[in-house]
Design goal:
Helix content is about 80%, strand content about 0%. The chain is an all-alpha fold. Helix 6 (about 100-130) packs antiparallel against helix 7 (about 135-160) and helix 11 (about 230-260) packs parallel to helix 20. It is globular and about 70 Å long. It starts with a helix and ends with a helix.
């Protein structure tokens, strides 16, 4: 046992780094949405296409990723996934230099394709890197680092992607030729620098995996998908993942715009405590910082809440059934949205940020409740659940379209409906689990 743990330490650390990395990059997309909206003068719906391109890859590549991994092995699959991610990051260079929005979309799509391969590979690997009894603990630890990445990303996004002022088309036309070229160059560098850095780090990880020995995973049963698709609980669980990821991403993507719509910039600048918090995160005097960065700094609390809530939820599930915790957290998320949309100022801001806290346990709990009782079909079910992450592509653009036409108060009804469905799923699985207990006994 001791030798096995020692042998698996380095692979576990590097796979945990992958969890952190894709969490960080996924949320960094949220910081880029408001910037791209102003740079290309997009509507909220068009800006939502950034998330659509990113999460569409999950739908397209989840099942092919499983097939790829079964042919080339998980080690080569991870290397292919990392290489694809690095290529996606590199595509930001020509996209930002030439200011071509479609290339940005393709870059995100490529980046997400690599992350999809890693998602399908990493979850089962974490489970086998050590004793079976400690699998749950290892997976929670890896997911906690994923949440750490999502917590840090908004600060990096506010500092590197949102801090400078974006000029309108009219303002750009009033610049001289030299000033215009200088402006375009600075805009390109603001995006190029962080993503070139990511490309280098990801390439180093891919090289590291070439020299790492990974344990063999158990083969999946043939024809499993046919049996799997006959199970109602699997379809309901996949729908749960779809609406959860969609709701989480939709809220996170438009928080900056929602805060600006609430006129929170002036409140933050004029409030001593709030101004100090923003200055601390941005490490700058607010008088020289753009409105998007001032309000964007507070996204830290949305994603940090997800990390804190995951530890709280993990502790609660030791003595409370997971489906009951899921019901409670979804109810509280709905309550926070209602409070935010029916109030103004800091109450509206902090209540919507609190949704991140209650989002925390939803993905892993829906995931594990869906896998409950599936036996050998669990690997195939995991692939289908990863495919359902495409909800992050569909729901945000729908949210953006509602915000464009009817405003944020109406748009937030969409994530509320998503949480209501998740509550239904939790009740459904809870009843199934309770009904099966006497038989087990």
């Amino acid at each position: 046992m001791t030798t096995q743990k020692t042998n698996y330490t380095i692979p576990f650390i590097i796979i945990t780094v992958l969890f952190f990395l894709w969490g960080f990059i996924t949320v960094l997309v949220d910081s880029l949405v408001p910037r791209l909206r102003e740079v290309f003068e997009l509507s909220y719906f068009q800006a939502g296409l950034v998330q659509f391109a990113f999460f569409l890859a999950y739908f397209i590549f989840s099942i092919p990723a499983g097939m790829l991994l079964s042919k080339v092995g998980y080690k080569k699959g991870i290397i292919i996934g990392l290489s694809t991610m690095a290529l996606g990051c590199l595509l930001f260079y020509p996209a930002s230099s030439q200011r071509i929005f479609e290339v940005f979309l393709f870059g995100y799509f490529t980046l997400a394709a690599g992350i999809t391969i890693l998602q399908v590979a990493a979850n089962p690997y974490v489970a086998v890197l050590g004793s079976e009894e400690g699998a749950g603990s290892r997976l929670n630890l890896a997911q906690a680092f994923n949440s750490l990445g999502t917590s840090i990303a908004p600060i990096a996004g506010a500092a590197f992607l949102l801090s400078d002022k974006i000029l309108t088309s009219n303002e750009i036309t009033m610049l001289s030729e030299v000033e215009r070229e200088s402006y375009y160059l600075s805009e390109a560098e603001a995006v190029q620098t962080p993503f070139l850095f990511f490309a280098g780090v990801i390439a180093l990880l891919a090289i590291a995996f070439i020299f790492i020995k990974l344990p063999q995973l158990q083969k999946t049963s043939k024809g499993g998908y046919g049996s799997l698709l006959k199970k109602t609980s699997v379809w309901l669980g996949a729908a749960g993942i779809f609406v959860y990821v969609g709701a989480e991403v939709a809220i996170g993507s438009y928080l900056v715009n929602y805060f600006i719509d609430l006129n929170l910039e002036d409140i933050i600048r004029n409030d001593t405590t709030m101004g100090s918090i923003a200055s601390f995160f941005l490490n700058a005097d607010l008088s020289s910082i753009d409105a998007k960065a001032v309000v964007g700094a507070f996204l830290f609390f949305y994603w940090t809440g997800a990390m804190v809530g995951r530890f709280i939820g993990s502790a609660l599930m030791r003595f409370i059934a997971p489906y009951k915790v899921l019901i409670t957290f979804t109810a509280l998320a709905i309550m926070m949205i209602l409070i935010s949309t029916s109030s103004i100022g800091l109450v509206a801001m902090w209540s919507i940020l609190a949704v991140g806290l209650f989002n925390s346990i939803m993905f892993p709990t829906i995931f594990t409740l869906t896998l409950n009782g599936l036996g050998e079909l669990k690997p195939q079910a995991s692939g289908l659940l990863c495919m359902a992450i495409v909800g992050g592509a569909v729901v945000p653009i729908s949210f953006g379209a509602l915000a464009d036409s009817l405003g944020f108060s109406i748009a937030f009804l969409l994530p509320m409906a998503c949480y209501i469905y998740i509550m239904f799923f939790a009740f459904y699985k809870g009843r199934r689990i309770k009904n099966s207990q006497p038989t087990i006994a």
